[in-house]
Amino acid sequence: MAGIDEIIGEWVKKAEQTGELRHGKYWGRPFDLDDDSSDTPERLRMAYRILKNAGYVPHEVSELNRLAALKERLAAESDPERRISLGREVAELTSRVRVLMGRLKKS
């Protein structure tokens, strides 16, 4: 899915520019993507593992996917009025996603 890849790519670029990546605990080490010792808060790991095994994704991920789809629609839209409406939706959803991600980080 190109949309989510673009969002992640933007975040990585920003983190590279600020030097934030070099201070991460995984800098220079390979990721074990199936490892439960990820940055996911411990109290959520079991629930997320169960959801993943059942084919569901966390709410944050579904919202990121929705945001990527909206951005793709906005990029393809030619009607100026519809572009304004989609732009508002993208801005609103971007704010909600940031709040969700902030809450996840704090927990």
Structural overview:
With 107 residues, the protein is mainly α. The chain has a domain at 60-107. Helices cover 69% and strands 0% of the residues. The protein has four helices and no strands. It has helices at residues 2-18, 42-53, 59-76, 80-106. Helix 1 (2-18) crosses helix 3 and helix 3 packs antiparallel against helix 4 (80-106). The longest helix is centred in the C-terminal third of the chain and has 27 residues, at 80-106. The radius of gyration is 16 Å and the shape is globular. The two termini are 28 Å apart.
Count of individual beta strands: 0
Helical content, roughly? 55-70%
Low-confidence stretches: none
Strand pairing plus helix content: what structural class? mainly alpha
Overall pLDDT metric: 80
Q: Gyration radius, to the nearest Å?
A: 16 Å
State the end-to-end CA separation.
28 Å
Taken in chain order, the helices and strands follow as HHHH
Fraction of residues in β-strands: under 5%
Helix count, per DSSP? 4
Could you state the oligomeric state of the chains shown? single chain
* Morphology: globular
Note the main sheet: none
